[in-house]
Write a structure and sequence with these properties.
6-stranded parallel β-sheet, 15 helices, 443 residues, alpha/beta, 2 domains, globular, Glutaconate Coenzyme A-transferase, 6-stranded mixed β-sheet
């Protein structure tokens, strides 16, 4: 049978594909742009009175599926890997918060563990490109865990979208791997970058001051990463590499100006190595069909032993709260989950072992209109530690850079107090004395 025959035999309507979900199933959707459209997800939600006990595994969901609304909880049990999307923040505060701790490097392995401990028929619904002339569809702009979950799935549903770019790397799968396809042309979500505040601009300047030629960077999304890219465009830095979880903002402009070349990388030389992206259509079009961009699953992209083989890895990540010993919380406000562990610890440890590597954690000095310090004597009750203190290196606020590597706890406390907001430094000094870190006044 030709691939065209296989594809036609598996092609069905979205309504028919939605009916492949059965009571008692567990189904996944990919990260970000690999997620299916509202079409099939709302069709599944509409079966709320027909189905029973269905588990939905999801992470960093961009689309506001109605399955997240309270009236669907009687049928659909939600399990989250990330709460970053705004429409999921209310769930994180509710009785339906149901978070599974996992680093990006092992998130697909956690599925295998969950299947073993809580066995169910498991599947995944993913967006793909139309088949090429050899019968292969591409996962496009997300390979975070999709392929690895496919390997563990008993059913695989592909939403064929001609607006998804085809990409290079660990992205292409023959139509015979899938249980079903349905076709639906729909725009990919654009994720606008918010304008940087004066504080964020200063933090970005502090980060760029730590970079040098031929560094290999990992950075995420947001106003500060976007400002870092803008400052790099204005810098004299050259021949940076990229080994990252997510494509940095302005990647295409940095490559065009030869600020990023990747030609001195030791691992995947000449390649921007990534697992997923978010941004605008201009970035998506540049990444699509671009052999410089190599998509791999996080089992590879976030593999600590692979990251550590690269020289001069610079891992740049955001944080929510840091205590005076250097414990970093990037996931929760006290007991309320804000996001997941993600790849932060993977890259922090990888940078720790990388020759010449640096791990940089960003934290604005205050929150809630300067009423709360983000550098604290002790982490808030319930705060999840994302990076243990012995892996903490550079802490960047708008007031400077605290280098914690090789420092004692009293020295760390003093360095962190020096980059805290001035209005909280006296209070932090008092807290440091109470913890036994400071023996004499430092101001």
């Amino acid at each position: 049978m030709s691939w065209k025959d296989i594809y036609q035999n598996k092609l069905m309507s979205a309504v028919a594909a939605a009916k492949l979900i059965k009571s008692g199933d567990r189904f996944w959707t990919p990260l970000c742009l690999g997620q299916p459209s509202m079409l099939i997800m709302d069709l599944i939600a509409d079966r709320v009175d027909e189905l029973k006990d269905v588990e939905y595994m999801n992470a960093l969901t961009l689309r506001p599926y109605k399955i997240f609304k309270p009236e669907y909880r009687k049928t659909f049990n939600l399990v989250f890997g990330f709460y970053s999307s705004p429409h999921l923040q209310q769930i994180a505060k509710s009785e339906w918060a149901n978070f599974i701790p996992a680093q990006s490097s092992d998130v697909s392995l956690k599925n295998a563990a969950r299947n073993r401990v809580y066995p169910r028929r498991t599947g995944i619904i993913t967006m793909v490109t139309p088949p090429d002339s050899h019968g292969y569809v591409s996962l496009g702009l997300d390979t975070f865990y999709t392929g690895r979950i496919m390997d563990q799935s008993e059913f695989i549903i592909g939403e064929v979208n001609d607006q998804m770019p085809r990409t290079y790397g660990d992205t292409n799968y023959h139509v015979s791997r899938f249980t079903a396809f349905f076709e639906n042309s729909s725009p990919l979500p654009a994720v606008p970058t918010p304008p940087a505040s004066d504080i964020e601009i200063k933090m970005a300047e502090n980060v760029v001051s730590l970079l040098k030629d031929r560094d290999c960077i990992q950075v995420g999304i947001g106003a500060i990463p976007a400002m870092i890219s803008k400052l790099l465009l204005e810098s004299n830095l050259r021949d940076l590499g990229v080994h990252t979880e997510m494509a940095p903002a302005g990647l295409h402009h940095l490559v065009e100006k030869e600020i990023i070349s990747c030609k001195f990388k030791k691992v995947n030389p000449g390649k921007v190595l990534l697992a997923f992206t978010m941004g605008d259509r201009e970035l998506y079009d540049w990444i699509g069909n671009n052999p410089m961009c190599e998509f791999r699953s996080t089992l590879y992209a976030n593999n600590i032993s692979i990251i550590a083989q690269e020289e001069n890895i610079v891992a740049i990540n955001g944080s929510l709260e840091i205590d005076l010993t250097g414990q970093i919380c990037s996931e929760s406000h006290g007991n309320t989950m804000r996001t997941g562990t993600g790849g932060q610890l993977d890259f922090v440890i990888g940078a720790f072992w990388s020759p010449g590597g640096k791990a940089i954690n960003l934290v604005p000095s205050t929150a809630l209109d300067d009423s709360v310090s983000r550098i604290v004597t002790n982490l808030s009750p319930g705060a999840r530690v994302t990076v243990p203190r012995h892996y903490a290196q550079y802490i960047v606020t708008e007031y400077g850079i605290a280098d914690l590597a090789g420092r004692t706890e009293p020295e760390r406390a003093q360095a962190l107090i020096n980059v805290a907001h001035p209005k909280f430094r006296e209070e932090l000094e008092k807290g440091a004395r109470e913890r036994g870190f400071l023996k004499k006044k430092i101001f």
